[in-house]
From TrEMBL:
The keyword DNA-binding applies. It comes from the Bacteria. Residues 315-339 are annotated as: Disordered. This is LacI family transcriptional regulator. Keywords: DNA-binding, Repressor, Transcription, Transcription regulation. SUPFAM superfamilies: lambda repressor-like DNA-binding domains, Periplasmic binding protein-like I.
């Protein structure tokens, strides 16, 4: 591959076209209002095309207000490109909308853990016109500096940090979770148990809040590890639990633990008890719950970011409805619930 030193520069175009470098800059920068012979403009463009000239993105940004480049930052060492990954449809939506709006994407990768949340790592996003972020947590100090400086950014997922100043596109987990609990109540379930991970995030808090709105007496169990014992699950049934509701997260830990324990105990859904997920579990099992419009979240996030960059009037915090999924794992409560 040719080195950067071997790549054509504006000075090369000027020399071959027989014009000044300032003229080349005007033509390639698309600046209007500058008087120039059309033959000169065509000659510069023809030479640039023949040489395969590509403007340096950072130089272009310094020379103009925008580069038409959007950043995409995840707090993981590698981007989630597996189709089964919960983040994958978000990336598909982001790519689709960026292409539709004529925007290029810069993927910020290569860091993990504390390094990914550090100020130096996040400051790299300034090479773009604005940046999309997604992850369960917000590194408040470096993100606050971006917000305070006026740098356009959008989080994918509802955020409440920094006093509610972070623009976002998220899913309405409160309403969707309440709807799941209401459907279970309609099937006669009065003794619900909610299994969630120990980690705290706005998406987790929203799910629990929605569930409690519709089922205030539901018992909450926070997993202390990746596994549940069969004795624990059988104990829940002995206590009168007829429906288990599980939190969905990007790790899928809670659902996987519950499903393994149910299978190991020889319990079937919905015959022995009902099972619902506040979201969609990994795999193709038709579990009752709701869909998360991740692809549309990615698309909306791009549109919101472009609106912020172009200072277009917009709604900086948006929640999308999560359509219900009936599934086959929730059924009428067994008679023991009414004993």
């Amino acid at each position: 591959m040719p080195s950067r030193r071997d790549m054509p520069r504006q000075a090369d175009i000027a020399r071959i076209a027989g014009v000044s470098q300032a003229t080349v800059s005007v033509v390639l920068g698309g600046r209007s209002g500058v008087r120039m012979a059309e033959s000169t403009r065509r000659r510069v463009l023809e030479v640039a095309e023949n040489l395969g000239y590509v403007p340096h993105p950072v130089a272009t940004r310094l020379a103009s207000a925008r580069s038409n480049m959007l950043g995409l930052y995840t707090f993981r060492a590698t981007f989630p490109m597996e189709v089964a990954d919960s983040y994958y449809p978000i990336l598909v939506g982001v790519e689709e909308e960026a292409a539709a709006l004529g925007q290029d994407l810069i993927l910020f990768t290569g860091l993990s853990g504390a390094e990914a949340s550090g100020e130096a790592a996040i400051r790299r996003t300034r090479v773009a016109d604005g940046c999309l972020f997604f992850g369960r947590h917000v590194p408040e100090e470096p993100i606050a500096k971006l917000v305070d400086s006026g740098f356009p950014l959008v989080y994918i997922g509802r955020r409440e940090e920094l006093g509610g100043r972070i623009p976002y596109v998220g899913a309405d987990y409160v309403a969707a979770s309440a709807e799941v609990a209401t459907r279970l109540a309609g099937l006669g379930h009065r003794n619900l148990l909610y299994v969630r991970e120990a980690d705290e995030a706005p998406s987790s808090a929203d799910r629990e809040r929605g569930l409690r709105q519709a089922a205030p007496d539901a018992r909450i169990v926070r997993l202390d590890g990746p596994a549940l014992t069969t004795d624990t699950v059988r104990g829940w049934l002995a206590d009168g639990v007829t429906a288990i509701v599980v939190e969905e997260t990007d790790t899928g830990a809670a659902y996987s633990a519950v499903r393994r324990a149910l299978d190991a105990a020889g319990l079937s859904t919905p015959d022995d008890l009902s099972l619902a997920v506040l979201g969609r579990p990994p795999g193709d099992e038709p579990v009752s719950g709701f869909d998360i419009p991740r692809r549309e979240m990615g698309r909306r996030a791009v549109r919101l970011l472009v609106d912020l960059i172009t200072e277009t009037e917009t709604t900086p915090q948006q929640l999308l409805r999560c359509p219900p999924v009936a599934g086959t794992t929730a059924g009428p409560a067994p008679e023991r619930d009414h004993a």
